[in-house]
Amino acid sequence: MSHRERGQFQPPGKWERDVPYDIRERTFQFAVRVLRAVRQLANDQANRVVAYQLTKSATSVGANVEEADGAESRRDFVHKMSISRKEARESRYWLRIVRAAILDNDEFAALERESDELVRILSTIISKAKEP
């Protein structure tokens, strides 16, 4: 059953859901990679706080993209994608903290780049959704 048949908002453009690397899959993979990476951090009080904040924001990016997929209106879609973008920005912040103060390795550098790319992609999706 299509989104239109269920009465849900159809996301803008060619947002293909069944390709292996659409925004839903990409944000899912981002969350999985973050969860695996934070296991590398030492288990002290400061690191637990940072790991907790990072895992919350990183997993929220994809959760809100999934929510946007079921949006009931264009406004609802834009709102949920905007929350997702906010969470991607927050994830980028926590990744910068990790790299600056805790552990700077290739995986955390790659995750920081990915968070930046997700912010850009989500910004484009939001801009296109706001077009008449």
Provide a descriptive summary of the structure in words.
- The model is unreliable at 1-7 (pLDDT under 50).
- The chain has a single domain (20-130), classed as de novo design (two linked rop proteins).
- The protein is elongated.
- The protein has 132 residues and is mainly α.
- Helices cover 75% and strands 0% of the residues.
- It has helices at residues 3-6, 23-38, 45-69, 74-102, 106-130.
- The protein contains 5 helices and no strands.
- Helix 2 packs antiparallel against helix 3 (45-69).
CATH class: Mainly Alpha
Let me know the number of strands. 0
Total tally of structural domains: 1
Q: In angstroms, what separates the terminal alpha carbons? A: 26 Å
Strand content: under 5%
Mean pLDDT: 89
Question: For the report, how would you describe the main beta sheet?
Answer: none
Globally, the shape reads elongated
Structural class assignment: mainly alpha
